[in-house]
């Protein structure tokens, strides 16, 4: 049997090295796509602005979890931008009286026009409970209130839960990070990176039909 000359490579060895190189380049391409996507995502959400005069809808939905979301939603209800408000994802130990005091809204407004969802534990749950609430009330449109960085994933999950519900996005901006300011803000980088990975996970879950 012929033996390979010292220092020479067998075909299988060369094939293995080629596979390693391909895998390396693929990893570089995936990493580059991830970084490019993160930059695009961060610039997009940082450029979102709170509408000064949003379109009216039949209802208003606010997803709890971020600063100023609840106040913004209650203000929209006061202004007549929607007929009824759902506060989704409220901590089970928080009741209507707590929320009424926190927002300073009139008790009559809570009694007549605000519903509270304690069941949702995450954005997927927010979307499911919100879609159920809208269907139960016969609403075909809703203003969606959440923070700007959370808006892409919220829209994605809401449209999955009910593709027929017309959504009017109302992004709440805590701190302006447009013009690339997010790159110089460590806390903003952390929040944006976390939200970007969650958004990618939501996209992949949809791609695999889960």
Short structural description:
By secondary structure, this protein is α/β, with parallel strands linked by helices.
Topology (SSEs and partners):
Blueprint: H1 11-47, E1 59-63, H2 69-78, E2 84-88, H3 96-103, H4 107-113, E3 114-117, H5 123-137, E4 141-147, H6 151-161, E5 166-172, H7 186-207
Parallel strand pairs: 1-2, 1-4, 2-3, 4-5
What does this entry look like structurally?
There is one protein chain. The protein has 210 residues and is α/β, with parallel strands linked by helices. It has 2 domains: 66 residues, no CATH class; 113 residues, 3-Layer(aba) Sandwich (Rossmann fold). The chain contains 7 helices and 5 strands, in the order αβαβααβαβαβα. Strands 3-2-1-4-5 form a 5-stranded parallel sheet, with helices on both faces. Strand 4, helix 6 and strand 5 form a beta-alpha-beta unit. Helix 5 crosses helix 6 and helix 6 runs parallel beside helix 7. It is elongated, with a radius of gyration of 24 Å.
**Main pleated-sheet profile:** 5 strands, parallel
Taking all Cα atoms into account, the compactness measure Rg is 24 Å
Name the structural class: alpha/beta
**Number of strand elements:** 5
Would you identify the CATH architecture of the largest domain? 3-Layer(aba) Sandwich
**Hey, roughly how much beta strand do the residues contain?**
5-15%
| Overall outline | elongated
Count of discrete domains: 2
User: Can you give the mean pLDDT?
Assistant: 89
What is the name of the CATH superfamily of the largest domain? HUPs
